[in-house]
Write a structure and sequence with these properties.
Elements (H helix, E strand, L loop, with lengths): L19 H6 L4 H12 L3 H7 L3 H17 L3 H15 L19
Helix pairs in contact: 2-4, 4-5
């Protein structure tokens, strides 16, 4: 089994300096950071039609929401979101039609 590469530490171990980004967000809790990420990655009404089938975007959306639930101590809520993210990535799920006009029969 391969060991994952460690993620870079935002603090320079030689100088002890923090990155500008770290300094900007150090007052936020981990849960607040995760919530902000989830909000950033969640599709909105304005971009849902354009991005609803983008597998990468949809997986990121689901993983970020799952992270929020994990940080809140709700693994039972995180698991279905992680499973859905896997489904987007392995192509076992697809986007549903738009509820407002997806499979409607045209009016005569």
């Amino acid at each position: 089994m391969m060991t994952p590469h460690p993620t870079p530490n935002p603090v320079d171990t030689v100088t002890g300096l923090k990155s500008p980004l770290q300094e900007q967000v150090e007052h936020l809790s981990t849960e607040e950071l995760a919530q902000a990420l989830a909000e950033r990655l969640t599709l909105t009404e304005g971009n849902w039609h354009k991005q609803k089938a983008n597998r990468s975007i949809r997986a990121k959306e689901q993983v970020s929401v799952a992270l929020v639930f994990l940080l809140r101590g709700q693994p039972q809520e995180a698991l279905p979101r992680l499973q859905q993210a896997v489904g987007w990535l392995d192509r076992s799920i697809s986007a549903l039609p738009c509820p407002s006009h997806g499979d409607r029969i045209p009016q005569r």
